[in-house]
């Protein structure tokens, strides 16, 4: 064996790896922007969510839904250096409606002009925060009309519905009883807006020459059977602006989101 050739080849390999690492570290991202898709994928436990399919809860109740929609807003991304980017406020609010899902059951939120970086966290709000709400109708832009058309604005109270679950439930004594769970804030007197932050399993690399994707799963079962287990038969079949019931649902909803995977 030629020892000097072996050493030379090893040194060359190390140099190539080092250069590749240096190139990645020294990549100039300061003037780059890219596109990022956040995919919301609704599920019930380990099952895909399907309209009018029956799903079971831990207490023996079952439910079927014909409406499933919720509002997310204030999406923020945090990079590997702790730098936070918040998508522009005027465009940073979305209705996630299962009725608009693709064949794979995914609803896309498309974010453009995102600063190129290696992102490690995603944050977002569930619903409409008080600052945005305080801007009034003039400050809501097109979203107010969008929410009204989608049935996500109270017709008899002041505020947005952050979530709508409409369908039926059954248990040992009743069959196909109506379920209407509408959670939101009511003016400034009842604030159910919540924010969550999720760590990404690997970095989401936003670049101008590629399209990054973050795939989130929303486990609807956690809303009903999560940190607090809710019984339809105890009055959680009809929830609207109750100041005790809606915060419990809002808190449960926070635990329903997880990151499934990343595409770069």
CA-CA gap between termini = 43 Å
In DSSP terms (H or I, runs of 4 or more residues), the helix count works out at 6
Q: Average pLDDT across residues?
A: 90
**Shape call:** globular
Helix/strand/pairing class, anyone? alpha+beta
Gyration radius from CA atoms, angstroms: 23 Å
Q: How many E strands?
A: 14
Helix coverage percent of residues? 10-25%
Order of helices and strands: HEEEEEEEEHHHEEEEHEHE
Number of domains: 2
**Low-pLDDT runs:** 1-26
Largest sheet: 9 strands, mixed
Topology:
Elements: H1 3-26, E1 33-44, E2 47-48, E3 55-56, E4 62-79, E5 84-86, E6 93-97, E7 106-115, E8 117-126, H2 130-134, H3 136-139, H4 143-149, E9 161-170, E10 177-184, E11 194-206, E12 211-219, H5 221-225, E13 238-239, H6 245-254, E14 257-263
Parallel strand pairs: 1-12, 10-13
Antiparallel strand pairs: 1-2, 1-7, 3-4, 4-5, 4-6, 4-8, 4-9, 8-11, 9-10, 12-14
InterPro entries: MbnP-like_dom
Protein name: Copper-binding protein MbnP-like domain-containing protein
Domain Copper-binding protein MbnP-like: 33-230
Describe the model:
By secondary structure, the chain is α+β, with helices and mostly antiparallel strands. The protein folds into two domains: 1-29; 31-263. It is built from six helices and 14 strands. The chain has helices at residues 3-26, 130-134, 136-139, 143-149, 221-225, 245-254, and strands spanning 33-44, 47-48, 55-56, 62-79, 84-86, 93-97, 106-115, 117-126, 161-170, 177-184, 194-206, 211-219, 238-239, 257-263. The strands form two sheets. Strands 3, 4, 5, 6, 8, 9, 10, 11 and 13 form a nine-stranded mixed β-sheet that branches. Strands 1, 2, 7, 12 and 14 form a five-stranded mixed β-sheet that branches. A hairpin with a 2-residue loop joins β1 (33-44) and β2 (47-48). The longest helix is centred in the first third of the chain and has 24 residues, at 3-26. It is globular, with a radius of gyration of 23 Å.
């Amino acid at each position: 064996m030629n020892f000097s050739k072996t050493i030379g080849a090893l040194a060359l390999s190390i140099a190539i790896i080092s250069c590749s690492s240096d190139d990645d570290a020294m990549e100039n991202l300061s003037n780059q922007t890219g596109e990022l898709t956040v995919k919301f994928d609704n599920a019930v436990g380990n099952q895909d969510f399907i309209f009018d399919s029956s799903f079971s809860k831990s207490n023996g109740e079952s439910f079927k839904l014909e409406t499933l929609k919720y509002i997310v807003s204030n999406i923020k991304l945090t990079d590997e250096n702790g730098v936070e980017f918040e998508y522009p406020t005027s465009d940073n609010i979305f209705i996630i409606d299962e009725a608009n899902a693709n064949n794979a059951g995914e609803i896309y939120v498309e974010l453009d002009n995102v600063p190129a970086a290696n992102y490690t966290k995603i944050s977002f709000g569930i619903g409409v925060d008080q600052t945005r709400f305080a801007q009034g109708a003039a400050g809501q832009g097109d979203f107010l009309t969008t929410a009204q058309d989608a049935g996500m604005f109270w017709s008899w109270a002041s505020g947005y519905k952050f979530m709508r679950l409409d369908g039926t439930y059954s248990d040992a004594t009743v069959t196909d009883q109506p379920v209407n769970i509408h959670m939101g804030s009511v003016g400034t007197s009842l604030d159910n807006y919540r924010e969550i932050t999720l760590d990404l399993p690997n970095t989401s690399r936003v670049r101008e020459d590629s399209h990054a994707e973050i795939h989130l799963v929303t486990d609807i079962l956690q809303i009903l059977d999560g940190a607090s287990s809710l019984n339809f038969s105890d009055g959680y079949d009809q929830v609207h602006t109750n100041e005790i019931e809606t915060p419990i649902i809002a808190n449960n909803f926070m635990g329903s989101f997880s990151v499934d995977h990343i595409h770069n």
